[in-house]
Design brief:
Two copies of one chain form a homodimer.
Chain A (H helix, E strand, L loop, with lengths): L2 H6 L1 H4 L14 E5 L2 H13 L5 E4 L12 E7 L5 H12 L3 E6 L2 H6 L2 E4 L10 H12 L4 H16 L2 H12 L3 E7 L3 H15 L4 E5 L7 H9 L3 E6 L5 H14 L4 E3 L6 H22 L8 H11 L1
Parallel strand pairs in A: 1-2, 1-3, 3-4, 4-5, 6-7, 6-8, 8-9
Helix pairs in contact in A: 3-6, 3-9, 7-12, 8-12, 9-12
């Protein structure tokens, strides 16, 4: 499948109906995953707070994992070394373990699983991996899903705006810095990772209001020297955050490129922002003449480390 | 107090004996704080996993906060707008609320508190703010505290190594990128914030193994162009992480500056790494001829936003 086709499949992914029958008999949710699969937990942690969601992006699991824990292992390939290690530990500690994967070893060691379609880059399967968790713990109305489908479809048909942003980034010598805000802090991180993997450029993300407590001090000088290309998610409903975006620009004498999520629900806005970043990083890869699907270094690293 | 004196006070801070009498009758720990106070929660989350530790770096608290939640509010000044907002919500929801502060409004609204000494930059009071949580939930042996005191004292007496690193950073045109690993991922973030606030330079942090799943793809080109100055914490006991550090350098053709924490316990190594970064950022501020205590932009921003 061509990379652009992978991107276009996101709208179908939001309709993925897999879910888990886990009841409500757990106190904590642990989501384990790395990279393009790990982002799923990060995004969900900001969407859901009825129970604590704890992220594992490493080999080890926290001590508290036990029978009262819903442990969700996410690995597109099913063969991610860190996630397999964490999942084995969770099984030993008798957590309620479920998995989201296209197969691999993870599908062998976990009974209850959502099997996602094969054949994509893991990071292009974000919708498939996120939806089973949303369907289980924070289900959306059918109309919201439909509206999101339509929104993403329009972006697939016309993404000149994203290509124009990619052109401006490519002309700039600054590294892309993406500023998010709750509940889209993880989406800013997603943009960063997409810039890394698709366009092979360094990028940095952080979130309002935390960034106002430290990195704002470095911004004016770096901006003046052209060291950064700042993208900020706008259209927040929180007037305190809107003020922060405005004042950070004024006081640091910087200009941010604002991305204004469309849609009325958090779900629509979430996928709008994700898709927007996917397209910007894709167009940037074309402008830079690099192959967005080439992640050979990551693959070599996996092989070298597991030797 | 001179900034260098603030740094030198860290060894006294690890002896700070304040603690809370909270028993064991809670299921979740929420730690709220921003910037130099917020880092406390990030660090503690990696040290303790008997119960889920959830971080709040924003105005709002998660839905799950209730009577079974230990809510720890950390604000050096006691007047941080986001932390006050989150703490008021936690009080309303009848969480067990305690506070760590030098005074301010936070000291007025919370009954049970650890009062830390005034007169420091908030970020220089990290030890004072961290110890009450450690003393309460993960107490250390007296001998460990003593060894840490001695270790920090030696660093105060001789920090030529840290000055040399600051000189190399200053000569380089790259932005400092700090790679941590569990349980020192938050310390890498601490370095980043210290570079921002003390030396007024942009910086970026991330952690093994997560960084091997995305930003490694951007490293070789950025490194070759001199765009980054990479510092990695070394001396991990985990051979899988040690391999990753080695192979990431080899495959991306990059050279990392390794910081090897001294000490045998996690506690000693934690404070060694914190103090090392404090000195590097301090020396970098001198080389760049900027005032490490100047955070006027952050203060202006707070005033503008709260208008």
């Amino acid at each position: 499948m061509e990379f652009i086709e992978e991107l276009r499949s996101l709208k179908e992914q939001v309709k993925f109906e897999a879910k888990f029958d886990v009841g409500n008999d757990f106190q904590k949710v642990v989501i384990a995953g790395m990279g393009g699969s790990g982002i799923v937990g990060r995004i969900f942690q900001e969407l859901y707070s009825d129970k604590p969601v704890y992220l594992v992006n490493d080999y080890n699991i926290p001590n508290f994992v036990g029978r009262d824990t819903l442990f969700i292992a996410v690995s597109y390939s099913g063969n991610t070394e860190e996630t397999l290690s964490a999942t084995r530990s969770a099984i030993k500690k008798r957590a309620r373990v479920v998995a989201i994967t296209s197969g691999g070893e993870l599908a062998q060691i976990v009974d209850e699983k959502a099997i996602v379609p094969k054949g994509l880059q893991p990071r292009s399967g974000l919708g498939y991996m996120l939806m089973p968790i949303i369907n289980t713990l924070a289900p959306q109305k059918r109309s919201t899903i439909e509206k999101t489908y339509m929104l993403l479809d329009r972006m697939d048909k016309d993404n000149t705006e994203m290509r124009a942003m990619a052109e401006r980034i490519n002309k700039s010598k600054g590294i892309p810095v993406i500023y998010g805000y709750f509940p889209f802090g993880a989406v800013a991180y997603r943009w960063k990772t997409q810039f890394n993997e698709n366009a092979k450029v360094l990028a940095h993300s952080s979130s309002f209001p935390e960034l106002n407590h430290n990195e704002t001090m470095a911004l004016s000088e770096t901006y003046r020297k052209g060291g950064v290309f700042v993208i900020a998610f706008a259209n927040t409903n929180d007037s305190r955050i809107a003020k922060r975006i405005l004042w950070t620009q004024r006081l640091t004498k910087s200009r941010f490129e604002l991305v204004k999520p469309k849609g009325t629900s958090t779900f629509e806005r979430l996928f709008y922002l994700i898709h927007y970043g996917d397209y910007v990083s894709h167009h940037l890869s074309l402008l830079r003449k690099v192959d967005p699907t080439d992640i050979s270094l990551i693959e070599q690293l996996k092989r070298s480390v597991s030797k």
